Amino acid sequence: MTRRSLESLVSEKEVWLSRKGLLHEIKDYSVTQRYINIYTTCGESFSVRNSRRGRASRVLRNNKYRKICKHCKVPDEKISKFLQKASVDSTAKVKVVSSTKPSQSKKAVPKAVKAKKKGTENSNGSLIQSKVKDQGSVNAISSGQPRSKIQPTEERNNIPAFTPSQKKRLEALLMPEEVIPDPSENLNFQELESSLVNRRKKDIVKIYEDDRENQLGKIERIITKFFVDRGFLEIKSPILIPIEYIERMGITEDKELFEQVFKVDKNMCLRPMLAPGLYNHLRKFDKVLPDPIRIFEIGPCYRKESDGSQHLEEFTMLNFCQMGSMCTRKTLENLIDELLEFMDIEYEIVSDNCHVYGATIDVLHKDMELASAVVGPIPKDADWGITKPWIGAGFGLERLLKVMHNYKNIRRASRSESYYNGITTNL
Ligand code: ATP
Ligand code: 9VF
Ligand code: MG
After folding, report:
1. Where does the Aminoacyl-transfer RNA synthetases class-II family profile domain start and stop, copy by copy (predicted)?
2. Do 205 and 220 belong to one domain?
3. I need a surface site. Which of 6, 98, 134, 415 has the fewest CB within 10 A?
């Protein structure tokens, strides 16, 4: 099933659901290439990414709200329209979709919203690449800003506007803390580019002189230690797996995820998830290890993706799980909390639904899903020879890095030849 764009949902529903579950009426909206600017009747205005997978489109596809905004006075017909399930096709008008199989679209209605405040200083400084210290050579480039901000070409009146390819080049060279200077500074492209190239060369030399660690490798080692210290056994299972495992996970040919699997030949594929390998280990070690069994794996997963800044086709998953006693939602949430506290990452928890596991607990940072977690057992366990209760969660390591380093695009955090520790290598 194709997920609908946020734009088509906004145009159909004409209402907006805030993070707190407040239903607003949309008075007006305008669409740019990647964002939708929304104006509510109560006078709020904001921009959201026009994505099919973000929180906004998920909650608009759903039909639940907590309260209606007093100031918007949403008309009854708009509330009823919102309460109907969103139609699947972006061109179709409102229709109620009933289905006997579990919905493949996400249902994310914030239930227990648990926001953790991030401190101003990152207590886990060793994980974070050092901020730009060398300010001397290019005083026009200021750092210390929350994120890079390039002034729109139209606003630059003193200097020739940058061409799209120049902007792209500068964006690649800039680190998240840096901004392109005020146009009045009158720096031309060549000056800016060569100063930034020098900075980035220095950054890479500094890593070479200091710890020489790759950020993806390092975060894997840190998380590995975190789980080993808490009694979890480290697993490394095959990346090349039988397609039959995918089907046994309930991902049959009619499911969206099945289409996302990289098949290698008639029988084999690159794993899109770690669960099959972990299921097999849980079953085998149930005869060996004392109760409860705690295991985890960190390693590459592959999915064909089309969505840009939060999805990679080659990414690194962490999946930890426990089987046997103490497999409660509380144990699971405590582990998630401890891990994200340790990484100093702010998060909230929302309830969601997926066809593999049914009810899931999703861990979000702003609009981005960091993890999906489940309290088992589930009916599918029988196909894997599992009979005991379990809990587990799957996290994307590049998404954690994206948050920790404030990258605009997840690509900076990925296995890559274009970036090293988030720094462009095209120097
Ligand atoms: P999304 O809805 O964001 O595509 P998902 O629900 O399909 O994610 P899960 O199957 O729950 O993803 O996988 C667990 C975690 O793995 C996700 O929460 C995310 O952090 C990470 N992840 C999944 N797909 C990708 C991807 N293509 N690129 C990077 N990380 C990913
Ligand atoms: C949680 C997300 C089935 C007992 C081996 C552990 C889990 C969700 C993980 C992952 C997936 N599930 N991307 O299962 O921990 O499998 O979809 Si188990
Ligand atoms: Mg998920």
Report:
1. 218-427
2. no
3. 98
